[in-house]
Amino acid sequence: MSLISKWLISIILLIFFIDRGFCIKCWNCRSSYDPNCADPFDNTTIPVMECDEKLGLAHLPGTKSSMCRKIRQKVNGEWHYFRDCAYLGEAGIQGDERSCLMRTGTNNTIIEYCTCNSKDGCNSSSLISPVHIVIFTLSYISRFILNIFS
């Protein structure tokens, strides 16, 4: 393997691991304050925040957020949505982020709790991480350069 190819592979791996080293970013909103927080989700007025910048949980000191969450709650016939960082549990149900935990209660109460950690902003309907686009582009460029020098 040539020096150039080793160098390019090292850069690509470094970028990939730098992306994994930073905390996850999640949408942070409540539909009671911003109707765009509800589904269908419109993130034009909603901030995405780095979860390590949030204060931890007072009752669980030292606990850091590692996931995003979306809570959909129906109380007395009215739907409410919450999107935020999540501190405990696992992403999805048995690792499947497309699955959410659903609970029902008295007085027509329904709660759907979804968690994810696959990418920044995963607690929305869709978001493409710019870092993943950069990784793909650099991979393509490095392959192109390797073909030229081979």
Automatic annotation (TrEMBL):
> Where located?
Membrane
Annotated membrane topology: Lipid-anchor; GPI-anchor
Keywords, alphabetical:
Glycoprotein, GPI-anchor, Lipoprotein, Membrane, Signal, Transmembrane, Transmembrane helix
Q: Where is the signal peptide?
A: 1-23
Mind telling me which InterPro entries this protein's record contains?
Answer: QVR-like, Sleep_regulator
Task: Respond yes or no to whether keyword Nuclease is given for this record.
Answer: no
* GO biological process assignments: regulation of synaptic transmission, cholinergic; sleep
The domain of life is: Eukaryota
Can the keyword Glycoprotein be found in this entry's annotation?
A: yes
One GO cellular component assignment for this chain's record is: side of membrane
According to UniProt, the name of this protein is (apollo) hypothetical protein
- The organism of origin for this protein: Parnassius apollo
